[in-house]
Amino acid sequence: MAKPKIRSELRFLLNGEDVALADVAPDATLLDFLRLSRSLRGTKEGCAEGDCGACTVLVGRLSGGKLVYESVNACIRFLGSLDGTHVVTVEHLRGESGQLHPVQQAMVDFHGSQCGFCTPGFVMSLYALWMKSPDPSNAEIEKALQGNLCRCTGYEAIVRAAHAISSYGKAAKDPLAVERKAVTARLEQLRDGLRVEIGAGRQRLIVPADVADFARLLEAEPAATVVAGSTDVGLWVTKHMRDISPVIFIGGLDGLKTISEDKDAGDGKIISIGAGVTYTEAFAALAKRIPAFGPLFDRIGGEQVRNMGTIGGNIANGSPIGDTPPPLIALGAMLTLRKGKARRTIPLEDFFIAYGRQDRQPGEFVEAVHVPVPDEGTHFAVHKVTKRRDEDITAVLGAFHLTLAQDGTVADVCIAYGGMAATPKRAYAVEKALIGQPWTEATVMAAMDRYAEDFAPLTDMRASAEYRAMAARNLLLRFHAETSGTRAPLTVTREKAA
User: Is this model's pTM higher than 0.90 or not?
Assistant: First the structure.
């Protein structure tokens, strides 16, 4: 196949301006571009890791032929990922006749700001919510603000402001709504189907034309850094100052954003999710068919992170504390890997070999994950333990998939954990102790003694080894209580957990 034509500049819209950049570093962030190159300093730098929300902007992109605006963290969003998008900063907000925008006016009137440093980020998060839900519930507001840290005002005033926005104006009359058709047309013109390649040698930034082009590129340059959502790689740059060149940006490839549901070899269903599907995009499909994923996804980062981070990236980076691998392993998910035109499919649990090492050949990439929908009558649950409830890194995550026989004995069980080993890992010894036994508290308590055969957790800043061991056991006890209709017993002591 012939090499695709190459364009040597990035093209996107910034507020109302057309931007074309021919000189872009592979690790250049949107935040630095806004503040240093465009003097748009309403977007702030706080944590530089996608945690505080002070850098929140909106990025509009075409998805399924529709223009979708999402809140994102500019501090860890690379410029290379913005080709063909519309970036909206707080400076672009405007009300009628030169007045403040309804979101801004509500924040003023309800005293939602003190020092003001974090306020533009809050405004942009509320703006995104208001456009999707002009009359939001408390739960919707709290979810939209998970990724925004308030140090001085307190959230109560901001929540009151969020409820009041529509009394200051109508979302349907907002400029982003009124101009949606025109912006959509402009973005469609930018999608010329060309590969973007900027720079020379190692210092190159590449946006493939499509998935086939990406496969050719990575096969030719297996050492290149692949960036989908940058919620992990972004921190390599902002916190660790790593050189990630050359970089291939794949977040905009439609071929990696597919979600489909098919029948498996029997009567069951399989949900296939492309590696570029974000948490936000996957939420509807997974939460509808597998409800336990809903509460889990709501606790993965904040809204900005979920709008950027991808399922495939969470798998491919091989982190021992990644939130999606344990539940996917417990469900028996399969992984499709691609190198050039060749594909192979393996059980997801076999992908993780050791810390920092996965079953992925040079030039091979994660293309899709295939998730079996649990059969009716089986039990599936996921529980995440963190220091704070929202937007925190996992200390221990347990996923449990149980099938009971008609006589109440355990016909099959799959238990997988994150945070307990160097990789996401199954509790094989515990599973063996449960299978064939009655699903009772006594059986579960006896099986707890087998955890030491499966795991030897480490102590780090998130949790001690002792705490992790105890939490893992207690999660199994909780799962039993949930599936048997009993109250969780308070009988696990530190001695028993040791």
Answer: yes
Which tens digit of pLDDT belongs to each residue from 50-94?
999 999 999 999 998 899 999 999 999 999 999 999 999 999 999
Domains located in the chain, CATH noted: 1-191 (3.10.20.30), 257-497 (3.30.390.50)
Burial of residue 487, with CB atoms counted within 10 A of its CB: 0-12 exposed, 13-18 middle, 19 or more buried: exposed
What's the CA gap between 394 and 112, in Å, rounded? 31
Position 489 confidence tier, pLDDT thresholds 50, 70, 90 = very low
User: Is residue 491 over pLDDT 60?
Assistant: no
d(CA 69, CA 284): 17
Strand 365-372 relative to strand 334-339, pairing? antiparallel
pLDDT in tens, 139-171: 999 999 999 999 888 999 999 999 999 999 999
| pLDDT at residue 305, rounded to an integer | 97
Q: How far is 439 from 376, CA to CA, in rounded Å?
A: 18
Residue 498 has pLDDT above 60, yes or no: no
- Please tell me the distance from the alpha carbon of residue 293 to that of residue 283, in angstroms, as a whole number: 8
pLDDT at residue 433 is higher than 60? yes
pLDDT mean across residues, the chain: 94
Compute the distance between CA of residue 337 and CA of residue 315 in angstroms, rounded to an integer.
12
pLDDT in tens, 437-475: 999 999 999 999 999 999 999 999 999 999 999 999 999
Contact 90, 126 (CB under 8 A): no
